[in-house]
């Protein structure tokens, strides 16, 4: 199972709707496939120019390690040099905070990830999970 | 004037509609702002994983030089080493073929660019121009 | 459908057997998944140290563009600057000659690629196709 | 003395067998030569896509410094900035935790290294040592 462009659009629309409903700052949302490659991305008006890279770095990090943003952030808190090494290893495309969320199908297989940036990392993750679940998929944040 | 996310969505939807109407291969479309930074991106089902990078490289090259893809491709045909130097200079994010199209407002100011990849470079550029014009903006391909 | 490690081992063993039977020079063989990420690799005794990078660059290029090595090599012959731009875009991990072979499942979906280096590019591709077909998959070289 | 492809296969098979017997998570194993260049690699089903890079970063770091992963990790604990500098120096291909294990011949000469990732760093190192010793070589973890 893979994430189609139609599903990716649903994820982004629902994530942005969650952000608007909760009064979050302008969000940027990326959906990547099981290899970490971008399927779709949107940056809301008012978000700063670097948001694609940050969103992608969150999602890409999740895919590369097979771990959600919360687990990567916890590892960063306990062993900073490991996480910094991952940043170097993946040529910077690795942002070790919440807001990167794994997307699993019903069988539990990782089929992609969502990365969101713009509000607090906790809120970024909430919006990502809302988007994934609205598309009928399982979020691991 | 800047390209809003709503306008970017219109550009992408119209570009993809053009591709479908013309029987093109699966397309990938990026819209970037006047600084070359991504506003929105979509990759159609069946497109290969590297398409974000290629689409962005086309749009980014246009913004960096202030030239449309056709002009950059012409320069590549006449002076390949210059264009190769640009590729190195911009850390690879520079793809010197058609399919990168400048977006101008009514006053002629460059407010962004569109990059499309997936079909022939000529068709990629046609789809990009169709998307830009459907959004009421001026395309320079 | 994905390529399991068991299937990857079969591909490599059969590709190397083809090379030995045909009297080819020492070969290096990589199998990557649909995102271009390495599943398995072997370098035969006597092969030079840079062979992992070359094999991976062939397979990775095929995945990124969704094209077999022969098509990429043809594009390099007709429009060298485009292919050189791809090398920059993918941070060097792009080797535009034969020996990169797409792996498709029965439905025609790209599920990975094989990259081989060591003998002539034509022979590299022959060995890769032999390996893929021995595993019951479809090779596009 | 060098590590032949046949020996590398033995190391990987025995390391993976150790992981299965101990109930470890899916492992990824690389064997590199005395120059840090990959001889063979396998990624077990279920391991995340970034595992080649991590495994290689562990083994490569060991070879570059002539130190086992435990010594590099200890240095990271005591002087994180030095280890971060090594990560930058070697272009990211340097992962400073256990699971990188030097391979020595009977005379004590470093002839390569093994890098494993997937379970805890301690378990990664155990599996690597098991693989090296099963091949009749000396492991320094």
From TrEMBL, chains A, B, C, D:
Gene3D superfamilies: Haem-degrading domain. It comes from the Bacteria. SUPFAM superfamilies: GlcG-like (SSF143744). InterPro entries: GlcG_carb_metab_protein, PduO/GlcC-like, PduO/GlcC-like_sf. Transmembrane segments: none annotated. This is Heme-binding protein.
